[in-house]
Batch of 3 targets.
Target 1
Amino acid sequence: MNNSYLIELLKELQDIMCENRDYLIKLDSIVGDGDLGLTMSDGFTAAYKAVSASGETDAGKLLYNAGKAMSTAVPSTMGTLMASGLMQAGKVLKGKTELEKADIAALFEAYLEGVANRGKAKVGDKTFLDGLAPAVAALKSALQAGDELNVAAAAAREAAEAGFQHTTTMIAVHGRAATRGEASRALQDPGAAVAMLMMKAFEKSFLAK
Amino acid sequence: MNNSYLIELLKELQDIMCENRDYLIKLDSIVGDGDLGLTMSDGFTAAYKAVSASGETDAGKLLYNAGKAMSTAVPSTMGTLMASGLMQAGKVLKGKTELEKADIAALFEAYLEGVANRGKAKVGDKTFLDGLAPAVAALKSALQAGDELNVAAAAAREAAEAGFQHTTTMIAVHGRAATRGEASRALQDPGAAVAMLMMKAFEKSFLAK
Amino acid sequence: MKKIINRPEDYVNEMLEGLYIAHPDLITYTGDDVRCLVAVNKKAGKVGIATGGGSGHLPLFLGYVGKGMLDGCSVGDVFQSPSAEQMLAVTKEIDSGAGVLYIYGNYNGDIFNFDMAAEMADFEESIRVESVVAGEDVASAGPAADGEKNTRRGVAGIIFVYKCAGAAADAMMDLDEVKRVAEKAAANVRTMGVALTPCIVPRVGTPGFTIGADKMEIGMGIHGETGIRRGKLEPADQIVDEMLEKIVADIPYVSGDEVAVLVNGLGATPLDEQYIVTRRIDSYLKEKGIKVYRYYVGEYATSLEMAGFSISLLKLDDELKGLIDAPAQTPFFVQL
Amino acid sequence: MKKIINRPEDYVNEMLEGLYIAHPDLITYTGDDVRCLVAVNKKAGKVGIATGGGSGHLPLFLGYVGKGMLDGCSVGDVFQSPSAEQMLAVTKEIDSGAGVLYIYGNYNGDIFNFDMAAEMADFEESIRVESVVAGEDVASAGPAADGEKNTRRGVAGIIFVYKCAGAAADAMMDLDEVKRVAEKAAANVRTMGVALTPCIVPRVGTPGFTIGADKMEIGMGIHGETGIRRGKLEPADQIVDEMLEKIVADIPYVSGDEVAVLVNGLGATPLDEQYIVTRRIDSYLKEKGIKVYRYYVGEYATSLEMAGFSISLLKLDDELKGLIDAPAQTPFFVQL
Ligand SMILES: Nc1ncnc2c1ncn2[C@@H]1O[C@H](COP(=O)(O)OP(=O)(O)O)[C@@H](O)[C@H]1O
Ligand SMILES: Nc1ncnc2c1ncn2[C@@H]1O[C@H](COP(=O)(O)OP(=O)(O)O)[C@@H](O)[C@H]1O
Ligand SMILES: [Mg+2]
Ligand SMILES: [Mg+2]
Ligand SMILES: [Mg+2]
Ligand SMILES: [Mg+2]
């Protein structure tokens, strides 16, 4: 695999965020300010547009540039966090032109790290991390167990879905939702929904092939 | 007559303005801001209070001081005009301790002059002047014809009443009413009503004796 | 009436007390009447400049007392004139032998009281007083015919008269010269406003007028005096164009002129909107060939919590430019 | 939505264009992005100070760029963070080799973007960047426990951090010193606000919340964040007392302390009311033995056309006094 796969993946991410624009708006309207559908569709569209025709062959640079484009387009909370994920993935994959299975695991691990470093949230804080962290764990263990990428991606998507559902047991401690305290518990976290959609797009990136 | 008459006259003015407070408020509410009842009752009360127990024997000083007290208490349009009338009357009667019939005519003539100089309105402009000017003319001609003060005062009151009623034929060119242009014509002028009340009080100042 | 106040009767005096607390280095009062405000800083032999008027227009009127502008100000109740007695007290305090100039807005109550105060100052104190009355609201009346009295209301443009006369006095010009400069500034300034919402006089407790949720009134005065037209709220650029058309045609201001521009918020209009207005003014005047020498943007003459703004233009010559540029320091106007 | 604007999408950029037109002597922008605002005046070798944040708070944030305060500011949409890329552009423009200090409010979006910009500045440009985050709204959260992150929102008190750090940089202190001063000011300031009416984000078009005609919300944030209690509107003195009780107890400020006080209007509250508030603050603090060194009263950090105000106290020592007193000149803050 090379950068054409990454571009394909970014396209799937763009498409799923655009398709779920209203869904994310609805989720964010309940706990926050309702802009998440706009920022995620605009942000991933900007990321894809910035690199789809760039001819960039360095996987790291491609992801870093996609992240920068996203951060410029949507400097909101989740916009900047997703940009930080992409940029960190770019730093880790810098110099690669061919991608192994392990590189894909490394990509999502770095993405998670980039978001965690930027946002300084912990798993359990009812954020995006509670969707992505279990997905990355599932992805890694599936690949370690020798699964193919498409199988591992399905496992990751399932874990993200479960993680997202699990956010209704947590109290928000970051962002607007945090002002609700205990009342935030019963509500689904919109950022974790984005993690779930990311993993759906990741899974689809192999179906499409 | 001496200053005890002037104090009596100022008391009648105070009383009539207080009794007609709501009437003046009503008139001014139609064409202006509705404060006239307040400023006239407060103003003439202040004028009377300032001199009633002063022991001042100079008629001019008494009237001047009454005017200053009024101007301090109610620096509104009509408040300042009435103060200017009193102060001008004071200037003209300065030095007198005994008042003849002619002095009373001079008092109101000076009052009219004081208001006219301050306000720079002309008769026919639909103001206080349209109530007081005909009253002063009637007062003077009655006295010239040899009438007693109480008879002359009644004539002055009648002329003021007629002058007030006559304001419904005029277009306002001063103050808030002027912004209405032609539409101001049908309305009674509140300031002219004050002139009518003044002459009523003047008339009563002799009945009381 | 949603106001952060105590008893409405105490509104003006409590405001003044707060003002003296916040600006002890610049302003104080004379006698024991907080409504007779004077500058702390005194310059011997300088012409004194006094203004006055009703409360409810902060920073107008008192906010321009300090260095390089005004020396004193008497303050009335909300939208009511101060008394001649108060004006006289201020006059006595600020006269240092060179005489006193009154600069105030064209309202009956103010005119009557300032005239009376001037007579008292002459009669009782032998202080020479001259007066300049600012009346530059083009929406309030037509221009005065030759020899006729100007019947236009005085609004925000009076700030320019203060600034020019204040700088002239600060430069130790004599009373005739300071008056000449003030008259020149007053003759060269024009203003027009627009209002979106009414304001509430604290002691009244209810709005002075009502205006539909999607309506504006072009030409409204700063006490809610009727304007020239009420209509649907339009985009900022369109409103500015309509106002400038009337203002520019009035003197008229012509291609090649240089002007100072004052964009004045009436109380509740955010600075953002005032700058959006500024942007359009700039392109409108550019198109007409009128050059802007200096902009002032912000709240200079308000109507309590009214939403809306006004535009004032001052036509400049070299003398006025120099006076506009001179430094000044007051509680609400600081220029280096 | 009663606003004097053109298309809501153009709100921020048109406001900025107006701003550059009005203040060409003080501010300009870098590159071709009007949202990357920098001071015209540059002082070689001086530490650069940058801030940034959402629009809708004028004069905050950009209004304090000029001489003696800030050197640059990136501006986001209304109530939205600018991007890291924009912050980086400003950072590059204002660095003159002595490094750059970021001072901004404690909001997630701003933190994430400023952190990212600092990394980029280091990584891509080798510019040393330090950051100080202001979070002093005592109504927004309890004080941070030892070693824990401060979760309080940053509001009007940030002006004091700007002022002190700006003066320190202007005195050619190095980056560590300027940062130390900024941290000291941030640690010594506390704020609390009250809101009477909501505001409308132009692109949203409807109020962010509703509040009864006779109600107020004590402790509300400058984006309409929920406060600590909503209740019937009370007399000014009572509101001030409730707010000061919370503020004074927080550091705490104690008898013998000297403070600077900022009374800040949120947008639609007349200056008169702000001075009525000032009056009560003064007697309250006098009673507690706390001495006021200097007052600032006016609009410093607004929420569009929201009605309400905030009070900020800055505890002073000799160093901070000197920095507060230093001259400054920006479009919205001039001190001699
Ligand atoms: N510190 C953080 N780390 C990771 N995710 C966060 C953090 N803070 C907030 N989030 C996520 O961001 C989501 C909201 O994003 P967004 O709508 O962009 O925020 P806002 O509009 O309030 O600025 C939340 O649902 C949460 O999952
Ligand atoms: N220039 C003037 N000369 C004489 N009377 C005047 C003049 N202008 C106004 N008035 C009188 O003043 C009256 C209104 O007085 P007042 O209520 O005090 O005015 P306002 O409240 O509008 O300041 C008018 O009815 C008119 O008779
Ligand atoms: Mg959101
Ligand atoms: Mg948001
Ligand atoms: Mg009246
Ligand atoms: Mg009146």
Target 2
Amino acid sequence: MIGSILIANRGEIAVRVVRACKDLGIRAVVAYSQADADTLAVKLADEAVCIGPAPTQESYLNSKNIIVAACLKRCDAIHPGVGFLSENAAFAKAVEDAGLIFIGPKSETIALLGNKVEARKAALAAGLPITPGSKEAIADLADGKRNASQIGYPIILKASSGGGGRGMRIVRKESELEAALALARKEAKLFFGDDAVHMERFLEQPRHLEIQLLSDGKGTVLHLGERDCSVQKNHQKLLEESPSPILSESLRNAMCEDSVRLFQELGYRGAGTVEYLVEGSSYYFMEVNARLQVEHPVSELVSRFDLVRAQIEIAQGKSLSLSQKDVQLSGYALECRINGLSAGRIEKFVMPSGPHVRVDTYLEAGSVLSPYYDSLIAKIIIWAPSREQGLSVMQRALAEVEIEGVKTNLEEQKLLIACRPFSSGRFGTDLYAKVCDQEKKHA
Amino acid sequence: MIGSILIANRGEIAVRVVRACKDLGIRAVVAYSQADADTLAVKLADEAVCIGPAPTQESYLNSKNIIVAACLKRCDAIHPGVGFLSENAAFAKAVEDAGLIFIGPKSETIALLGNKVEARKAALAAGLPITPGSKEAIADLADGKRNASQIGYPIILKASSGGGGRGMRIVRKESELEAALALARKEAKLFFGDDAVHMERFLEQPRHLEIQLLSDGKGTVLHLGERDCSVQKNHQKLLEESPSPILSESLRNAMCEDSVRLFQELGYRGAGTVEYLVEGSSYYFMEVNARLQVEHPVSELVSRFDLVRAQIEIAQGKSLSLSQKDVQLSGYALECRINGLSAGRIEKFVMPSGPHVRVDTYLEAGSVLSPYYDSLIAKIIIWAPSREQGLSVMQRALAEVEIEGVKTNLEEQKLLIACRPFSSGRFGTDLYAKVCDQEKKHA
Amino acid sequence: MDTLNLEQVLSLFDNSTLSELELSCPTYTLKLKRSSTEQNQARPSAPVAKVATAPEKPAKAEEKTEIITSPIVGTFYLTPAPDAPPYVRVGSTVQAKDVLCTIEAMKLMNQLEADYACEIVEILAKPESMVEFGQPLFKVKRI
Amino acid sequence: MDTLNLEQVLSLFDNSTLSELELSCPTYTLKLKRSSTEQNQARPSAPVAKVATAPEKPAKAEEKTEIITSPIVGTFYLTPAPDAPPYVRVGSTVQAKDVLCTIEAMKLMNQLEADYACEIVEILAKPESMVEFGQPLFKVKRI
């Protein structure tokens, strides 16, 4: 049994994990940087340990201080939250080696899925459709040309150890390949310390969908349906919804079944997500996020599962006692991320409340939005019986928000929720550019 | 179709109705007293009309100003909220006569149910068990003695036009009857302008349960299960939960079926509640609340129905398209009322948020808790898969509350949620006295 | 300035246009602040230096006016009938119990009477428009 | 400007378009602020007057101490081994690079060295207890 958890994260996600600990009667110890001493996670936690100065490299990425803090605070487990060390196989291994429970997949699973080439191989082996592309890292230009002509242009070069849009290059014809390959290698080396790149078919207008899974590592894998995360700005998700307005029942079933099978073959343990690109009636495996995701509340509201609670219970060795037919997905959920566009002291902070609305945040009036970390201010998540009602509820909720002292994307989000393409459900990943950049031009 | 609603209420319930209007795309006009000019309902509404000074008699009970405001603001309907004019048949009639829609039952239904003797007759006629008692008002002392000996002591005398604990007298033996009857008549006359009293068996340790119903007035009546409201202080509800921890499946079914039948016989239109006293495996009809109730979110969380939205849709003449089997009651919900114990400016106001928690309030830091109106500050409502988990979640939520500037019952509510009798589910309506008054003695 | 000459500092502050002044030394901390209402008022000339100032004009006694507000919700009319002349105009003087206007509510014309004799200084509500409870209708001066 | 001529500063400020002014010297700290409404108005120059100030007394030099904090999370030890004498005691003086304590983290004994020669004024952490990043360990005085 887990009696105490060290939470190696910050912001709203640290608060989320603290709340799950409280609900389970588990002592929550928050590891924080000096910049975060006054934040809500520290305030709500049973105990807190300062693990370093503001820069993430010396605090939230400082494995050693985090593990020592967990040991000296007599914690049984570490919850890595999202981002930071949550998908770092070496950290997971070090946590295990220190005799602690890592709340997440086994370190081997993280290591395998962290390598894009290996992950694609695993997906292929499990029978998942992948975008046509090189299975292996590109050896040289000749190899690249051969692969590209098989796949068909446009192709995209990706860092094999990468993620988050870095080290990616789109190549539309063979004459551009040499320069692009050199550049992609250079960036891959720079950002991820590994210059291996592979090649995939580039989809011009795909939707980003992901399947949420829960797996006990003992043979039971459940899916909680999909999240449609197609509204993005520079590869950062802005709005996430479930169910997707464009997914047919047969496509949904196929994607969910594929995802469950992949997790079964991986012997996956914990919560995780399989990401897909969908174009027309085809879908392609993209990657596995071997951790909790920022947008997890969307799935919590349609399934009424508590994903963080489930993560902790699975880490305790509890088997999932339910089967897929016990998972009732009902209604519609939508998450809107309110991001800061500037750092500073928040003078006024009014969040919506009342029926159908959930707010996950760590800020209040007087808090400082730190320049050191990501700019997520709050997640506003709504549930309604239908998408149409849900969009109304979200508009009502956003209208209640008041944030003064820092600039935010609130007005942009209001525009997106209210725009015709979004309400119709027919839009691509360029929606933000079309709606918000247009607006700026007119302003 | 209703395009605009005048909301003739204040506080959190006015905010609740404003939000439902926004969700439905209906223009919300709030009628407010001078004391409430700066409250959230006024701020969130599309428009607002001042209908009188602070005293309720001249504002929230001023039918004429309210109806004129609705007409001049071109509203189609009036939502009376809870309390105030919500169960006033003459008001409902005046609204109808002014050509407006009253969002609630027909005025005749309200008139019938507002008379306790008539309501008991209707319940009897529909085959509901009622506490043994006089069907008619007590004629004189001899009639009282005859009735009391048939019923068996202890008995309780109640004002036939009354409610809310006023004009009630418990009589434990015949020798006390004469004095008690005179006093009860005097109080009934004083409070309700009608000295008619009737007599019922007095139950020493009953539970207060109520069945939530939705009826379209066209033959379809749905129930959303029960709420257990047994934790009270001076007849004021403090905690409400669903499902009840003491109700057997067979008793629940019988109570729900009886309630549905009663509403069918009444031709009831709108949302309403049938209240029962439960002792052992017996239940007795008490009264019908022909309106929305403060604790309605409890049923909203277990059923995922939006009761205020449903009220408005029914008032528009929409039929309920669902049948009882489509109503899925799942998990557990609990509401905790945070009440002010003093009036004044609220200096600090932090409400809980995050997973499983809903907050309905109308206050924020800097607001004034008015001495003119009831003291409800906020309703904190949680949902969890089970009662055990729910109590944990509520404790976590209450621990996040910070209110400075006015005294509240927060600490008492924390005591109640955490106490052994409440978590066991085995307690009576004297729980508050046992737990909180005890605590005060020790303090 | 080791010895704080408070009088002098106050005098300097008074003659300046500052709204705040903070001064610290190892011995003293001094904070001066002028409220926003006061800083706009004329201040008596400082004793430090001779300043030629015109004698202060006596404050012109402001004419006291009062506001008559609507006692109900309804539609505001200045005339008893569409073509009739108004009950009052700006500049009219009325006696107590004289009718000022009618406010229609539920088809009833409610006549609003003056509580005291007064002159109508300004009509504040728009004729034939809705008025709320407490809404200002007339600015008047008692006579 | 060792002797603060307050009058002159105020006069300069008054005639400037500044809204705030802060001035510090070893002896004084001065803050001036002008509210936004007035700062745009034309002001007459302040009347000049002679201010007599006493010669400044030298500020008494406070003993400057510094805090050495923990650079890592770990367990704080004052001795290299259980029975060994402590690296330092209150009153000890150490040279740069001298060891002050060890902090154990993951079975590794990390020796914390002094950055500069100093005297130990106070030991702030409890031996054999956990210390966080940034936690004060020693109060020292440079020598």
Target 3
Amino acid sequence: MIPAFLPLRDAIAAHVRDGLTVALEGFTHLIPFAAGHEIIRQRRRDLTLVRMTPDLIYDQLIGMGCARALVFSWGGNPGVGSLHRLRDAIEQQWPGPLAIDEHSHAGMAVRYAAGAAGLPFGILRGYTGTDLAAANAAHIRPITCPFTGETLTALPALTPDVTILHAQRADREGNVWLRGIVGASREAAMAARTLVVTVEEVVDALDAPMNAFVIPGWQVAAISAVPGGAYPSYALGHYPRDNAFYQAWDGIARTRESFTAWMATHVLGTADHAAFLRSVGGTG
Amino acid sequence: MIPAFLPLRDAIAAHVRDGLTVALEGFTHLIPFAAGHEIIRQRRRDLTLVRMTPDLIYDQLIGMGCARALVFSWGGNPGVGSLHRLRDAIEQQWPGPLAIDEHSHAGMAVRYAAGAAGLPFGILRGYTGTDLAAANAAHIRPITCPFTGETLTALPALTPDVTILHAQRADREGNVWLRGIVGASREAAMAARTLVVTVEEVVDALDAPMNAFVIPGWQVAAISAVPGGAYPSYALGHYPRDNAFYQAWDGIARTRESFTAWMATHVLGTADHAAFLRSVGGTG
Amino acid sequence: MSAYTSDEMMTVAAARRLRNGAVCFVGIGLPSAACNLARLTHAPDLVLIYESGTVGTRPHVLPLSIGDGELAETARSVIPLPEIFTHYLQRGRVDVGFLGAAQVDRVGGLNSTVIGPYAAPQVRLPGAGGAPEIAAHAREVLVVMKQSTRTFVERLDFRTSAGRVRALITDLGVMEPGADGELVLTQVYAGVTVEQVRAACGWPLRVAARIAPVAPPTPEELAVLRDLQTRTRAAHAARVRLDGVGA
Amino acid sequence: MSAYTSDEMMTVAAARRLRNGAVCFVGIGLPSAACNLARLTHAPDLVLIYESGTVGTRPHVLPLSIGDGELAETARSVIPLPEIFTHYLQRGRVDVGFLGAAQVDRVGGLNSTVIGPYAAPQVRLPGAGGAPEIAAHAREVLVVMKQSTRTFVERLDFRTSAGRVRALITDLGVMEPGADGELVLTQVYAGVTVEQVRAACGWPLRVAARIAPVAPPTPEELAVLRDLQTRTRAAHAARVRLDGVGA
């Protein structure tokens, strides 16, 4: 009924196991960086990582060898340029090969929505006249409307073993309130077999307005209070996006050496997210 | 850009024409009674009426001969019993025949959602083992998942010529905020070719919380300020549902004579919604 | 307090089937009464979902309609109706669904659509609502219906939802499906005979080898149920006046 | 203020194409600059939609990412991302979509996926994002790209989105599709020759019989654009500290 309130280390250890399909969602906003770092610290392997926009945290997970496959629709550092570790994995198979299952944003949204709805597939008018379907025929197929005869595109549902979200607030029953840009978080949450949430704070009463995006506590497996858990992404109402860090990441991730050194110091070399924040100068 | 702010009479005259497909949505809450009464006063004919739950307002529209067809999923007086005018139309063709296109709630939601998404059809796992598909083969067809081979049910999109909603509040740009139980209002609004809205009040600033259900003004064709416009349904924060009126309707609508007399007095015999409210004792 | 009606016994029997913490998809009328009775007695953490979009609601009075304001104001969250059917029901997040109908058959098939032929019915009933998908997707389906040979029929006039029933709770007792899916009488209420139940059933009713006894409503169950219904009747009888609206 | 860069000219030329009141699906970078320049000059009622779910947004500084908090805080409504693609784009409610890419071909096809073979690319680019469906569903598609023979190519390495372009706005001029769909040079900027444009294009570029002149940026356009970009640079350079968080 009520989710387990656990330290993040325990929540990740309990739910993220080698070989699972894991979605860390949040569109630019509320990206669960702390959870991603903890997965790296626990040296998980062979994960199928799912995310519309891989972002820096997937660059880190991929560069640290946690992933065997990536399901995605746009893999860049927004407004800055490449994700160098993602590129290195695809172009040079470093630190290992990375299988990709690639879509458009509209397609990823449809796949999550189908998973959330308990359907085996979803449909869209999309991919027409592109090379995407030919490149990914296992996951992109035509379908005919039984009423109009029109050909549309069908995509298989995404149902992650584990979806991890970051939110501003949970109450003591484990009800979780996300506010601001939510991306496909709702669909990723409802599609998941297991939902793990990190939050900025746990409060006695959510005080969410009616019709807010509140996930009932009985759907959440574990909640960890991790202040700053989305940094360098952001949590509306708590702290802004560290755009300067996103720009700095371009240099850090550009070479294997600088990346590995940075990860050793700031992620593997820190015990938890509070220590990570101190080490990158975000606090303290 | 900014919708026309019109008296309800003018908004209905401009947008609801004989023969159109019209959806008055709102699930128990925010049912646009004032707009429905105005359609009756203007003696519109041959409408295809769409609504998940026909409710009293469709009982009235059907009994007054405005409809030639009904698309629906549950046609009763909630918690009370039959809609006697709907029954009379189907059982005895009074005041004329009524074609029906009948679904389950889940199916109607899928049909609206497909229309809102610009798709020709939607899918669900539903209708299995029921007589619904055989009774309505034109609108319910099997479809095969191209990935799993599973057979699901396909339903054609609903795209009403006009959707009419009632909401608590609009601002001067015509942005509309609905709060509380919204049913399939969002999907019915986005599926429509033309959207007409009645509101309890027009304000300088909506003051809606982030992530509220706000319809941008540029999607709305016309807005009419009609205080009490959902009565005897309700508008959360303004007035409650008149459950006693819903119970009384059972007696009013039971015979053609009592129904016709009531409509002549309270709807045809009143110039507008304010007069209607006075005549039924809701105000004054 | 020892006297109670058969409706009360039926509501109490339905309420007792709900384990604390279960997620219930609640319909209006008797299911709503049973679920709230359970919530107010042995199952305080029952999660009630009404199809109007109210999740985790705790109404103080029973709603007349499926979308009364009371349900929204006491809900943990209020979401669009399509999500109730996709994210909750079709995705398999509902433990218990409650249904009623105008007709039931021996395998628990239900009719709430028409009496007579579909194209020219003698009686047009309200229709399917949420029933077909509740029957298909809830982990467990409970049906609550008063018994009569008119409603417990050999052959449905229309199959609105397929038979997939864990228990059919009547005003006389309880039927549960046997291995072949046909309903078998497994419980009768105090003071009711098996012959009475058989007489009020339109097909030759199978009877279990051992009929379990059903305890009558406890004083607490009766008090809570009657209190709830008294509050509800008073709330629904009040006419609404809009004098302040738009002022 | 008479001097201006070719990037500024390109941004201004793109901004001028936006009529007041149009609904624009805005991408990050140059399209975002052009749309906000238009909104702050001749088109105050431009409706900006960013794929992150922000509808009718009016940012004071340009976002670095497509989902900066600035976009949410200045939006008329913030909705789930799937609805942006279904209710707005696929339903046909977007007037103008902006795209950029790593490669463009002579019919306006775009590549933002790979350089080299898909299975073993020399350069892995970010990928499709919203592009395929923007190209398919916006009433009008504008592409903004700096010209070079490396990016304006005879043959795309990968077709990320189909050619369906109303205008390709470059740093040298503007191309628009002819009757057969092939892009034709229709405008060049002041101080640019047709030969320069041809030399920076990887296919034999068709040129319209009459080349329309393009007015240089006005002082107001330049001032508003530079002011916006100065504000933006300052905002993005500030490091974030979380000392208060969780305290």
